[in-house]
Structures are given as C-alpha cells and as structure tokens.
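Before relying on records like the one below, remember that each one covers exactly one chain. Contacts with other chains, cofactors or solvent are not represented anywhere in the record.
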Amino acid sequence: MSSEKPLDVLVIAASNGENLKLAQRFQASARSLGQQSELLDLTTLDLPLFTPRTQAANGIPTAISPLQGLLTSAPRWVICAPEYNGSIPPCLSNAIAWLSVQGDDFRALFNGRPIAMATHSGGGGMEALISMRIQLTHLGAEVVGRQLLSNYAKPAKDDSIEDLLQRLLQQQPLKL
C-alpha cells in the first residue's frame, strides 16, 4: 500500500497563459491549507478534436484513459479557464466531449463532484463562468456558489483564492 496521501484537490488549467498561473496559485494555496493537490494543464494533452466521425474512425485517444484516471482520483476540482469567444475554451470543451463518450453514463465522472471555478480573462470573463456553470451543473457537478473573476485590471487576491478553496473544501467530498 502506498504511503502517499491521496489527492484532495485537482486544479485544472484550460490555458497555458494567465489561467495556468492562476491555477498554480490555487495549487500553492491548497497545499498551504494542508491539502494534497495536483495541477493538470489541459493544453499539454494530445487530444484530436472530438467528432463522432473521428471517434468511429480512430476510437478513443490514448490520452483519455490517464486523464479519466486522474480526474476520478480527485474528490474535488478547481477549474481555471479563460473566456474564449464568449464561452468555454476549446481544450476544456474538447476534453469534456471525449470524457462524455466513455461508458454508459456520460455524467458519471461529474455527478456529485464539488467543483470551484475561476477565470483570468482579457475580456469580461463572466460569460466563461456562466457557460461553465451551466455545463457543469448539467453534468451533475456541485459547483461552488462563489467564483473568481480576475483580469489585468483586477488581479486575483490571495485571500479570494483561499476563500474559494475553503468553500470547496467545506463541500461533501465525492466518495471515491
């Protein structure tokens, strides 16, 4: 049996820019709160664009199994994603699309999972947060009521990051 502490919080970055930096701050804050935390940068995954035709021709990409394993191993997630054309960034939508065709229950990975959301956006950012909230609640996630919206004019504050994490940690963890 491994002596390594199980994962408490998975911090997911859906960009390799400012949202990756924001995700790193969330990970550091989670660790300072005594939580085992890992960072997942979705931009590093080799996932083709999901289409039924691609799935039929090539099957499930090899990157999906380890991704699904990592997501399943974490009872709580923080998603840091920029606003992309008024909605969710493609790397996040694409990953969710591929994950949703696994097994018989496309909601199984999300059902009851506590998730916090944050964005650093060059635009407004609110549309990304609203779009994520709609999609994640549709999939059955328990999205934290508070969210974090930051930009260059209004950078994220450490106490706001910690407060959002505290709210996430207060939610009943997913039974793994």
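The first strand starts at residue 9 and ends at 13.
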